[in-house]
From TrEMBL:
Keywords, sorted A to Z: ATP-binding, Nucleotide-binding, Transport
Stretches of the chain forming a coiled coil according to its record: none
Organism whose genome encodes this protein: Brachybacterium kimchii
Family statement: Belongs to the ABC transporter superfamily.
Annotated Low complexity bias: 323-337
Membrane-traversing stretches: none
Every ABC transporter domain range: 27-252
Disordered, as annotated region: 1-24, 314-337
Stored InterPro entries: AAA+_ATPase, ABC_transporter-like_ATP-bd, ABC_transporter-like_CS, P-loop_NTPase
Recorded GO MF terms: ATP binding
Protein name (Swiss-Prot/TrEMBL): ATP-binding cassette domain-containing protein
Top-rank taxon, per record: Bacteria
SUPFAM superfamilies assigned to the protein according to its UniProt record, in alphabetical order: P-loop containing nucleoside triphosphate hydrolases (SSF52540)
């Protein structure tokens, strides 16, 4: 699926040239479901990541992010639904490393190998020439440490090497679990530019992170999940513009109809609440018009992904969907799972 062309012009830790292939690959998750015994890890998830975008995959601990990424990368099997990379399941891709670069846990890198050996082995595994390892080593800013064993690497250096392994096959898409972990401010800035440059060259990036301010500075799209369900999805601007007003009513179904009729941009929470792009007084008027009894009316500050995250996942402890209103949130009022 990928083509190799001119050599990468890597300069120091400049991210330029991280992608040379012009292949494009989307990541498409539909109605994905996975349970572990009684525990539902992923509960009917839909998500589309398109070429040219960096999507931040967010959610509190246990929300189902890692399970989703593991299914997408062929490490776990879904009970139902699909998770496709460029239209194929990961396991069906003949040379997956040439299509999608994956870093789920940089701690699993072999401690006894040097950085260069790690990258050479990764290059061989996906059918790349071994000189690609030197290019990538430079790309991830580890040229000076290539002959050092991984056991002597700091956590941040391992993260860089892990990202290097993901990039080795010149893939069209990247899946990274907590890539900013352990990176110092310079490293975070480097990673942000690397991912931006990758996406600007037509690459597709899906990354999970708990570092919301960092995510806000890096991504252009956001998918937020709680209890395995999507609670917000859209461009960073759309999701953070939902700073407006959070409202809940005694009768969530009637509230949903009122919100829908108003035509106002809104996100539905998994507990049946809505976050509306309106001032509280206007939400109050809307409620009055529809004879609704409100149980919550809260102004959220604009522009912060952190505010949206906490409002939609209840201080990081995502709300359990009520049985009668278990619709997943959607960026508009008309979509329900
Ligand atoms: N192998 C497993 N066996 C049993 N339960 C599991 C397994 N993997 C995940 N789970 C459960 O599935 C749910 C989702 O877990 P998952 O690791 O996908 O969440 P997460 O969003 O990645 O969390 P974190 O941010 O803490 O990494 C959790 O309740 C977890 O305990």
């Amino acid at each position: 699926m990928t083509t190799t062309s001119t050599p990468t012009e890597a300069r120091g830790t400049e991210p330029a040239g991280t992608r040379r292939s012009d292949a494009s690959v989307d990541l498409r998750i539909e109605s994905l479901r996975k349970t572990y015994g009684e525990q539902t890890a992923v509960d009917g998830l839909d998500l589309l990541c398109e070429p040219g975008t960096v999507t931040g995959f967010l959610g509190p601990n246990g929300a189902g992010k890692s399970t989703t990424l593991r299914i997408l990368t062929g490490l776990a099997e879904a009970d139902s639904g699909t998770a496709l990379v460029g239209g194929m399941s990961f396991r069906a891709i003949p040379q997956p490393g040439r299509v999608i670069g994956v870093m789920l846990d940089a701690r699993t890198l072999h401690p006894g190998r040097t950085g260069l050996e790690t990258l050479r082995l990764a290059a061989r595994t996906c059918g790349m020439r071994t000189s690609r390892a030197d290019e990538v080593l430079e790309m991830v800013g580890l040229s000076g440490a290539g002959r050092k064993r991984v056991r002597g690497y700091s956590y941040g250096m391992r993260q860089r090497l892990g990202i290097g392994v993901a990039l080795i096959g010149d893939p069209a898409a990247l899946i990274l679990d907590e890539p900013a972990n352990g990176l110092d401010p310079e490293g975070i800035r480097w990673m942000r530019r690397l991912l931006r440059s990758f996406a600007d060259a037509g690459g597709t990036v899906l990354l999970s992170s708990h570092q919301l301010a960092e995510v806000q500075a890096t991504v252009d799209r956001v998918a937020m999940i709680a209890h395995g369900r999507l609670v917000a999805e859209g461009s960073l601007e759309d999701v953070t513009a939902q700073g407006g007003t959070r409202v809940a009513a005694l009768d969530p179904e009637s509230l949903g109809r009122a919100v829908e009729a108003s035509g106002v941009g809104a996100t539905r929470g998994s507990d049946g609440s809505f976050t509306l792009a309106l001032e509280p007084a206007d939400v109050g008027r809307l409620a009055l018009e529809h004879g609704l009894v409100l149980t919550e009316l809260q102004r959220l500050s604009d522009g912060s992904l952190e505010d949206v995250f906490f409002s939609l996942t209840e201080d990081g402890q995502a709300p359990r969907p009520a049985p009668a209103t278990a619709a997943a949130a959607a960026p508009t009022t008309s979509q329900e799972a």
